[in-house]
Design brief:
By secondary structure, the chain is an all-alpha fold. Among the domains are: 1-42, Zn(2)-C6 fungal-type DNA-binding domain (CD2-Gal4, Irregular); 184-392, no CATH class. The chain contains 26 helices and no strands. The chain is globular, with a radius of gyration of 25 Å.
Amino acid sequence: MNYTRKRAVTACVRCRARKTKCDNQRPACGFCTSVGASCDYEENVEHSSFDPASLHILSRLNEILERQDDVLSAVHALDAGNISKTANTPGNFSLLSNTASSSAPDQHFPFSPQDGGEGVDPTLQWENSANYLKIPSSRTIPDLILAWPIFDGKYLTDCLQDAIFDSTGMIGSSDSASQAVDRPLGTKPVTSGLSETEISGLIENFLAAVHTKNPILDENMLKRSANSIIEDGLSWDGPSCLVLLACALGAIAIPFEASFTQITFDPHMFRQLERNHAPQNFEKADTYYLLARRRIGLLSQSIVASQCHFLSGVFLMFALKPVQAFHEFHHASLIFQVYLKCNRSSPKSPQTQRLEQRMYWSCFKSECEILSEIPLPESGIADFEYPHLFPSPPDPRNFAVSLGFNESALDPTSSLIQQQSWFYYLSEIALRRIGNRVLNAFYRDDYHLWAEMKVSSMIRVGQEFMNLLDQWHEGLPSQLSYNQDNLRELPAEELPFMIRARVLEIVSCIFRPFLFYAIHSQPLESQESLLHPFVEQALQNSMRLIETNSIRHRHHGVWYTCRVSVSAALSILAAAKSSRISLPQGWQSAVQLAIETLLFWENDGPGDLRVARVILEELFAVELAGFEDNHSW
């Protein structure tokens, strides 16, 4: 394939600092010309060393991100009246079941025509092209679905949020809590000496199973540090801390293939599956993590210290300890910002620049993920004027060296894994930007916002977001591609599997406002065809999310996927409770599968998983009883 760059990979220095689009005109871009400022481009990056595939992917991602800026401006001027504004009489919705009543309880339809007024246009919230860098608020959490009027206020506000903190041992709160942080898996530490064979194997497993998702380390340097520990023993410095954290993660991570072979969508078979993780692996992981914790507080404000705190956060997420993980990610971001300011004038090698770029984006992504679930303070990483829109691709000439091999002896499979990891990392960054804009457009407030928005504008914007994701999928390299036409077909490789799960999560956020509207409002019959596909896809996508997230594979995002499954199951149950929307076939099995998934993980995680499981069981029992009164399985 002939890869032709359609636009420059990087903007000018001024536009990159402002985090705005640059038209890349030479010698001066349009913005710099308009304000009479000097326009400079960084020329110290040798693009000729990048492989054509990396250049093509960067170009495609930049084109898609540029299209994001145009999506809402294209509909901004459209005349978008609120559907509820013209709905004078109750009408049957095309997704209504045959038994739906047009005189449903009034409390489930609280949004009268005048509540919408002229309507709020979601496009107004997307005027800043750096909107993707705004950390989303925690408006997609399951608590806010439980607050929907359809559930009649049965559960306390923030009951799931409170459960996260009620069951979390905070750092320094007590001796037992401190031990829980040191040994997040709750196991008895192993005190035997460190084995050369063991360390080498754990490092290899870390690089293959963990580092591929957040490639923030110099792999060659990590291996040299590991060899030094094997030969000379542990030190109290940053490299030793990094090796210990990598070993801890290498001990707790298992190959994706072992988990994939266990996948079943049958909730009854799911419960009978054997656990694929040996207790001794947890003990080993806790031992290495405890040794790392003793060193991490001694590190200076360096990029190595930031890397250590970040990997500590990743380990705690593996252990389903999100609040403690937040502390580590927050610390990593703060240290990294201090490091950049202290070294802003220092000359840096291309390899150091690449590590800095990856560190920035990994910190930013992790903060977005955790703060979209837990309302805690930001580190300021999103406001830090960091100029690189994407991290620079690794130099293909250094693939062998960075993997710790002689170039002539490099296994082609290792090179492919490295390339797939790089494409995954770029795609994850692009999806985080798209996801942030979806959240900042539709979730800057609770569900009352949806009642005030112009529904026709919501439809247009929602469709544009879907078109954007379709365009993004078309540009995926074959190493990450999945079957978008049949979402029940799961990719057998981990990185395409994870990419697909991320897309399903974004799609769920796009469609949820339309499901809410269908449940709580009564649109005109003439508007049915407009809303029908969004509501239908909201339910179908919820089922696909539950199925995808049921995989019993321990990874960085397990806690997130559990909460996404809770939101998906609550969305289905809200539709069932409304008695107005036709439910997709298999919805009962999907909800039960979500319950089984929570049951599997709840003993490892914070209290919100157990509370969510109990709530789902209660709601499901009520809806299942009512459904069986009128239908047969």
